[in-house]
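Before a computer can learn anything about folding, someone has to put a protein's shape into writing. The outcome of that step, for a single protein, is printed below:
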Amino acid sequence: MLDAMLVDALIVAPAVLGLVWSAKEWAAVAAVKIDGHPGLLAKDDGKNQAIVAEMIKIAQTISDGAMSFLFAEYTYMAVYIVVFSILLVTMTGVPTTVAFVVGAVTSILCGWIGMKIAVYTNVRTSHQCWKDLKSGFEVAVQGGSVMGLSLVSLGVLALFGLIVAFKAFFHFESEQEMFEAIAGYGLGGSSVALFGRVGGGIYTKAADVGADLSGKNDYGLEEDDYRNPACIADNVGDNVGDIAGMGADLFGSFAEATCAALVLAAACPDLKDSWASLMYPLLITSTGIVVGIITLLVQSVMFPVKEPASVEKALKGILVISTVLMTPVAILLSKWCLPEVFKMDEKLTEVKWWYCAISILLGLWSGLVIGYVTEYYTSSTYMPVREIAETQKQSAATGIIYGLALGYLSCIVPVLCLGVTILCAHSLCGMFGVALGALGMLGTMTMGLTIDAYGPISDNAGGIAEMAHLPETVRELTDCLDAAGNTTAAIGKGFAIGSAALVSLALFGAFCVRAHITHVDILNPWVFTGLLFGAMMPYAFAAWTMKSVGKAADEMYQECMRQFPKIMGPEQMAPDYERCIRISTEASLREMLAPGALVILSPLVAGFGFGKNACAGLLSGALVSSVQLAISMSNTGGAWDNSKKYISAGGLGKGFLKGSEAHKNSVTGDTVGDPLKDTSGPALNIVMKLTAIISLVFGSAIANYSNEEGGPFWLN
């Protein structure tokens, strides 16, 4: 078994290496000079420089808009952090509050870094596509890897630093008590993720839907046409919703899964006295950083990008390579950190070290399978999306019917994978095994974030190319990168949803330990009542967020239609981009409050008002309901989006290109799908996780407010 000093080194050294490597990749992106290519413009230097100046101006406007939104959003978050910290101090004590604040600040920092590198990279990706496809792809991946490596590295260092500080400055009765307090770290990260996902999702889709309805449908403009007043807000939204929000979301998953595993390990009598065994969950993530760096080096050799068809292969290759490399790492860590045989609880008295390795590998490979199933249902390479495109020849309605059916069908294999993982892992190692399965699925998080961030970067690159009047060949290359990015973004959402389900179940197990719940009986009326309410929560949450997008998009549409007559008429007025950015910002911040309150307050009301059994039922219902709704919404929206791109690229033939009825029908489907795949669907991950982590953090207090049977205290 590894000694304590080596364990510390294996946690800190990879995290430091990850930060150094991300700085190296940022430097590589910064080395790209935006100076144009005179040869590609028939050596027209004047036109060349005008385009370069416009590219820089547009990129700066996008950056300013994103920073303006994040500053306003983080102001709201600061108020929430202060208010919730007061509640935490009162109910749980100072250590949990400190962990909460550290988790929230780290999550905010990760989101900010992701947004900064995205807006820094997008214009350089556009510029390099002016040169060739390979150069554009490399810059986009380098920008994405900065986010992936830096986010995970910061998360590992902050959590490990918190553990060391708590051991040095606070007195705890046991290791389990300390790690229960450190669970506040996951709560802080997930709270920020809620506002980032919901606020950012409403922002980006309000701009996107408003731009499509006014520009494409009413005025027949191309996507990202500079004359559309909402086009800059749409590109800003890609960064604040898909980058900052997604980064905070996956950071929250890492923090929660690790905290749940630490709590469960500390509750195990045979693991709590070994530093290597206690830090085993954190080592899984820290060594994953090294795996990510090696993956980036191997990918460029095994999957070089030479033609459009090779882009998607290269991105999927990143996932495959990282999964294959992580497999032996997980096995060796289990061998080196755990006893040969140990007792988990009264029922699991002979758990072998390789049981834990199997639990990790089940999560790791289930994540890859879920990713590939998601690709099958959302990529235009395969039959499901092409079937939708065929139905859109007739009407938008038939395309919407097929899209909804596709989303429901796409739930089957992921749910089977999650079920097998949970059943096997729990049978081998109890809830600790489920937590390890979640960490296994997140073991390749550095690369998952890399290809996730790649998508919005490529999308923005295409928008900049269109707005700056770059040659049509450049837009064709950025569209190629963007099409592959759409598929990998859908794969990333599949990973996020799957890991959220496992994380939530692991947190539920940790909550049961802390609240002294030995079994959850569905025949208990308080459990079943909580179950019904929990199953309803995702639908209420999805309804509120979708309605919020609709309201904000209507405001955006009205503003665009107010400006268009003067923009398109004889006056040729310049679009007022700032007004549209302000509409999206104000609407998203206003509309994110009610869904956020639903998720944060529901477990507290259930636990303190109706007892720990009702709270357990609520968590169960929210988990089971959210998984399938999130998968179906995300995949339905992704399929409609790629159906539109398939038709635009001539997939149905030359008679069905842009401007045809089939294309207009596909735009309708894509517009309906926007809030499904980029707002409500991804945010349901946080409904699962945040309700569970809040219950865990307040578990002891909830138990104190319950009667002996686990019902409400007022029935004593």
